[in-house]
Each structure stands twice: as structure tokens, then as C-alpha cells.
Amino acid sequence: MKELIYTLIFAGLGILLIFLLLFMFLPGKEDGESVETMRYVAGVYTSSIQFGEHAVDMQVIVDENRIQSVSMVNLDETVETMYPLMEPALENIADQVVEKQTTEGITYNADYQYTSVVLLNAIENALAKAELSAAETGE
């Protein structure tokens, strides 16, 4: 009877040891945390938009992983007066780009649809200058 009990205990310990080894050494699920890889070269990037004789620069500030801000620089009063929808369109787009961290899926008001498309293209051009190529990221 003792021998049967000892055999069951050793068999149970053996099975437990096998499960422990499997649990420790088999690849499992990744932790919920993922390490962010660099997406951009940190800096200030601009893209120009030509409005008649005047050029307006779209400025995008990025760090290695995030879009920090989007703004217009060198905005002449003449351009601002002739294109009054530019400021509200940019505020709307800039908020969404910084929040979503992408230019994909940006929505805009139908009242300033064409202005928004021009601004969004300029933002995409500036971000393209900031993006790392696949060779630089090691992918």
C-alpha cells in the first residue's frame, strides 16, 4: 500500500515538473506592452502651399514616435483674407492628426472640403519628409 502511495506522489510530482518546464521554456504570449519603434526623425518639417503669388508653409513638429503639432507659418494677411476658411480647416485637421497620429481617416466639414484637402496634402508631404525608411528602421 505504501508503495502505491509513493508511486502516485512521484508520478504527480513528475507531471507537475513537466508542466513547469513546458510553461517556463515554451514561447508564450507577448506581454501587453510593446516597444514602440521609431517612426520619424525628430524635428520640424515644412511643406509649401502656393496661393497665387504667396506661399504658405505647413509646419509639422514630430519626435521619434509622435506628431507633436501641426501649424501654418509665413501666413500673409492677404492670403488669410482671401482664404478665410483656411484657419478653421487647419484647426480641425491639426487636432485630428495630433489625436490620431496619422492622416488616415481625417474628417472635415463639407463647407471647407477643398481647403481641407489642400492642407491635408501639405501635412502628408511634411510627414513624408519626417518618416524613416524601412532600411533605417531595420524592418
From TrEMBL:
Chain segments annotated as transmembrane: 6-26
Alphabetically ordered keywords of this record: Membrane, Transmembrane, Transmembrane helix
Origin superkingdom: Bacteria
Identification of the protein by name: FMN-binding domain-containing protein
